[in-house]
Design a protein that fits this description.
The protein is an alpha+beta fold. Helix content is 51%, strand content 12%. A four-stranded antiparallel sheet has the order 2-3-1-4. The longest helix is centred in the middle third of the chain and has 27 residues, at 93-119. The radius of gyration is 26 Å and the shape is rod-shaped.
Length: 177
């Protein structure tokens, strides 16, 4: 899907452009446009869509996997290589609890790291339209995507609202390289 980037010098102009895009039928919930900044503005200050995340699922799944792995490793090891001492049962609970606890924590931590990378959409191999002035000069970028007709409409909105520059995808690739 083709993209276009509008660069704005002030947050007010960027917010006006985002509102104009929304009024023109661009839906931030469908990913029709997104805001790029080099500064940490509060969420939704430009009226953009805040994507729901599922990060809390990853540690739960990791903890369950680690718990099961801990039980299987300790139980399987004691059953496979039984060492009966003094008539005690083959499965000894105290070492199983420690290894299972460690496996549960390790699984939760590893899956949390993987979930963070997944939810952050990293690594971003597709790239997209970008301009280094966003991070170096403090510009605020609005990336609109869609059909060529919709991009022409977005470009007209960017220029009408007062964009400093409008960058198309091919021009942005030339600047980045």
């Amino acid at each position: 899907m083709a993209q276009i980037l509008g660069l704005f010098k002030t947050p007010e102009l960027a917010a006006d452009a985002a509102q104009a895009l929304k009024n023109a039928g661009f839906d931030p919930h469908k990913g029709d446009y997104d805001i790029l900044t080099g500064c940490p503005y509060p969420e939704e200050v430009f009226g953009e869509h805040v994507a729901p995340h599922r990060l809390f699922i990853f540690p739960i799944i990791g903890a369950i996997c680690g718990f099961v792995a801990g039980i299987l490793i300790t139980g399987g090891m004691q059953i496979t290589y039984p060492m009966i001492t003094g008539g005690k049962p083959i499965l000894s609970i105290p070492p199983m609890v420690i290894i299972t606890y460690e496996g549960t924590m390790l699984g939760a931590i590893i899956f949390t790291i993987l979930g963070t990378l997944f939810e952050s959409r990293l690594p971003n191999l597709e790239g997209g339209v970008y301009d280094p002035r966003i991070t170096t000069d403090g510009f605020i970028g609005i990336v609109a995507q869609g059909s060529p007709e919709r991009l022409a409409e977005a470009e007209a909105i960017f220029q009408r609202v007062g964009a400093e520059d409008v960058v198309r995808e091919a021009a942005a690739a030339g600047r980045a390289g």
